[in-house]
Amino acid sequence: MIDLHYWSTPNGHKITIFLEETGLPYKVIPVNIAKGEQFKPDFLAIAPNNRIPAMVDHAPKDGSKPVSIFESGAMLVYLAEKTGQFLSADLHARYDAMQWVFWQMGGLGPMAGQNHHFRNYAQEKITYAIDRYVNETNRLYGVLNKRLSDRDYIAGDYSIADMASYPWIVPYKNQGQDINDFPHLKRWLEKIAERPAVQRAYAVAKEVNPNFGQPPIRTDEERKILFGQTARVVKD
User: Fold this and answer.
1) Same domain, yes or no: 157 and 143
2) What would the pLDDT profile of 56-88 be if each residue is shown by its tens digit?
3) Which terminus of the chain faces fewer neighbouring Cβ atoms within 10 Å, N or C?
């Protein structure tokens, strides 16, 4: 059994997609980040960066003691190695997929996240910041669109590379992007959306978070919790 500490964010969706695709047994432990539950000691014990998702695998492949992991990219690699699925054993194919997972972790996710923040959540609308992140998101969409121009999935076969990027493309409207400008990316997005496991994963989001799909910031307290963190929250 896997304990998945989860909230309905793009990084959280990555892991529920993988778990639903493989049928691994898992239990969702909600971590409502708008209420500050990511600062509880039991969560910080496995996720010292106080971010979701995180997980504990109580039945690791080698039969050893439970394994706890934070960072969604590391979790995808771990689960792929545990199951032998969605990450090829062939050297070239394996690292083809891995490099795109790291591309998402280091580029698409952070840039789209800042895009969301300055376009949708920041109380002061700073034109330079909005343009900076909307344009960089647009560039990254272009990179992925070109990559998909001659293949169905990012690394050839459906893999953790697709699971990593898909949830960050779903909210393209909130990122100021016109998906019709990226026909190969649009085709890929629609193809993955049709997968039953992906639909089940997003159903989990709606079950865990009744407000899923609505703006996550509704009060000043929620804004302070999500956007007012400094080193002090780690120290305290």
Assistant:
1) yes
2) 999 999 999 999 999 999 999 999 999 999 999
3) C
- The Cα-based distances of 118 to 29, 122, 128 in angstroms read 30, 5, 10
Sheet holding 2-6, edge to edge: 26-30, 2-6, 54-57, 67-70
Q: Give mean pLDDT, residues 119-145.
A: 96
Q: Are residues 68 and 111 in the same domain?
A: no
The two structure tokens encoding residue 145: 């669109």
Q: Which domain holds residue 172?
A: 91-194
Q: Are 78 and 86 in contact (CB under 8 A)?
A: no
CATH number at residue 169: 1.20.1050.10
Q: What is the mean pLDDT of residues 206-226?
A: 80
Contact 116, 155 (CB under 8 A): no
The total domain count for the chain is 2
Please state the pTM of the whole predicted model: 0.94
Q: Within its chain, how far is the Cα of 42 from the centroid?
A: 22
Q: Which helix (DSSP H) or strand (DSSP E) does residue 6 occupy?
A: strand 2-6
Partner residues linked to 153 by β-bridges: 156
pLDDT score, position 223: 73
Instruction: Write the burial class of residue 76 (CB in 10 Å: 0-12 exposed, 13-18 middle, 19+ buried).
Output: buried
Read off the pLDDT of residues 88-99 as tens digits, 9 standing for 90 and up: 999 999 999 999
Spatial distance between the Cα atoms of 157 and 86, rounded to a whole number of angstroms: 8
Rounded-to-integer distance, Cα 31 and Cα 43, Å: 8
